[in-house]
Amino acid sequence: MPLQLHRISSDDEFNELVQCVCESYAAPVNRLWRLFRHDLSPAGFIELRDRLIREFRADPNACWLKIVDTDIGNKVVGAALWNTYTENPYPVYKDHPVEAEWWPEGEPREFANHLLDQFVCDRHKKMARPHMCVEEADRLNLEAFIEATDLGKLTYEACGFVYAGTNYLEGAKRNASPEWKELERDMQTPIHMYRMWRPAGGKWVEGETQLPWKED
């Protein structure tokens, strides 16, 4: 199975790429991904694809990569989004940096915003420094960050990342309505993810290398 790595360069490549990502996160279900793709219908797929294209166009720091299998007609079998920052990408702290416009208005969107705020605001606390993907990080001697699920954690550790804490996206709130509680059950909150950090050069020395922040 000869695999090849390619950088995404055109909008036309996103349809198959997003299909691959959606299928890979469907079984087992990636609950964090559900936050970014609420509508599982064909119309929801188109909305997601077009949203990712817009975000890709608007972000000069973004790099989408895909893995294709040349034995089966260059089918996309893997994908990843990496962002390269030579300056602090979070210079100003924002309580509500992202609006979940792809969720229906009302309590569903309020619920999604509640989770997104916890997800993104953690980056402001932990990733407010220049950083990028592994190869570029090594070339420029910068560190790298990523958020990992249970399935991804071991893979990133094999690439030199170390566990740097767990972030929990809590759905619970006081006096929650029946609709809110149903959203909690549907999304199976709290959702946890692991903060992973790779020091500059990938050189981690047990007992000597220090995390770049103090744990909460």
In a few lines, what is going on in this structure?
The chain has 216 residues and is of the alpha+beta class.
**N/C terminus separation:** 45 Å
Strand order of the largest sheet: 1-2-3
* Mean pLDDT rating: 88
Find the count of extended strands (DSSP E, 2+ residues).
6
Radius of gyration: 18 Å
Strand content: 15-25%
Helix content bin: 25-40%
Question: Strand count, sense and closure of the main sheet?
Answer: 3 strands, antiparallel
Protein model, in words:
The protein has helices at residues 14-24, 31-36, 42-58, 107-126, 134-140, 150-158, 178-187, and strands at 3-7, 62-69, 75-83, 144-148, 162-169, 191-198. By secondary structure, the protein is an alpha+beta fold.
Which descriptors would you attach to this protein?
216 residues, alpha+beta, 37% helix, 3-stranded antiparallel β-sheet, globular
Layout of secondary structure:
Layout: E1 3-7, H1 14-24, H2 31-36, H3 42-58, E2 62-69, E3 75-83, H4 107-126, H5 134-140, E4 144-148, H6 150-158, E5 162-169, H7 178-187, E6 191-198
Antiparallel strand pairs: 1-2, 2-3, 4-6, 5-6
Helix pairs in contact: 1-3
